[in-house]
Amino acid sequence: MTYQRRQPPNLLKQQLKLSSLIIPEYYAAHTAIWSGEYNEYLGDGGRGSLKSTFAATEVVLLVMRVPNIHAVVLRKVGSTLATSVWPEYNRVIDRMGIRHLWKQTKKPYTLTYIPTGQTIQFYGLDDPGKLKSIAVPFGYFGVMHFEEFDQYDGPEEIRNVEQSVFRGGPFSFSFKTFNSPAMARHWVNRYKREAKPKQFRHHTTYLTTPPEWLGPRFFDDAETLKQRDPVAYAHEYLGEVVGCGTAVFENLELRPITSEEIAGFDRRYYGLDFGWYPDPNHFGGMSYDHARQTVYIYEEHRAQKETDAQLAEAINRHLHDEIIGDSAANRSIATLRDLGFSRLRGCRKYAAHGGTSVTDGMKWLQSRAKIVIDPQRCPWTAREFSEYEYALDKKTGEVMPGFVDAANHSIDMTRYALEDVWQKRGVQNA
């Protein structure tokens, strides 16, 4: 992203200082936005984290300093504009001491930068026709702010809006601010896990906000909820994805696994779950730290309608590694062995002592201290582990026993890969 920055006209009553506009927690984000290296800010966090205030501040600064651009601020429901983003943007302008530089118009909601005529326009997406008809007297729309990002219908709606609004001009930047929904399978949480090359991600909480910005009552309420309902506190104030008590894996940690970490692993394990369509082939690589009881998953290959020959080519770098696959796929295993994967074998399945290879393997994974998954290297694995839940009885709403046999290809692959660890030592002791 390249653009020519300009200084605001000499109409300011005082020089704007970064420290008076945003709190230190956002300094790095501010630098990233103005670096020209990113075109999207994804800001999530709990109550009092100032994520919306920060976005509003940056939008105002961009309109003032980037020539010929206009901004559009969006809520899913138009009726919420008057009580959310509209007063928030006006508070930001007042706090910056630049009210004399901005004109207010309420039908439609518009802020106009008086020295140049550039605008910040406010719309709801419950009336798509309005958005299609928006226009500017000159220049182009270069900035968009999606407030309460999780309330939109999904990534397709977001893409359609961006493609409709961002047309022409060398500069474009999107702000997307929200509190993560509780359920891991919500589309926004998936959006968070899927890396984008020019996206700056930023998670914030009220704990980094100066107390004078929020007042003592805010902190008292937060502490009260923390003591009374820790799960609700974690979601509302810390912005955590807490689920609804049905998550199978509560020991997940999604983070980058560096090349240095991978190089230091003592032993590596590989698993393969076979499929065609809609079920995919899913191959994965991982390591296990016995001392820390931690699984590290750092490699995946996933494809639908993939022949055995194509699969062999895709994972050819593992030709001489031991790979454990689903023993039910005897023909595919035989074909791959003929293609040179001499150490590929089927997993050991059993049903004894009240357990099965599936339930024992799942319980072992659940009992680990951590399952660390790199969401950039392994997006599908991160998604399946994060979203895998117990089924609920439709009549009673109670959690049903057993594990759902759906959307679990990476999980099966992991069980296969590590079976020598947990089957030899036992579920509890490995």
Can you characterise this structure?
The protein has 430 residues and is of the alpha/beta class. Helices cover 33% and strands 21% of the residues. It has helices spanning 18-21, 27-34, 51-65, 85-96, 128-132, 155-165, 187-193, 211-214, 216-228, 230-236, 259-264, 308-314, 330-338, 357-366, 379-387, 409-417, 419-425; strands at residues 40-45, 69-75, 102-106, 109-113, 118-124, 140-147, 173-178, 199-204, 252-254, 269-273, 281-289, 294-303, 323-325, 344-346, 351-352, 355-356, 370-373. An 8-stranded mixed beta sheet has the order 3-4-5-2-6-7-1-8. Strands 9-17-12-11-10-13-14 form a 7-stranded mixed beta sheet, with helices on both faces. Strands 15-16 form a two-stranded antiparallel sheet. Helix 6 (155-165) links the parallel strand 6 (140-147) and strand 7. Helix 3 (51-65) crosses helix 4 (85-96) and helix 9 crosses helix 10 (230-236). Mean pLDDT is 90; it is low at 7-14.
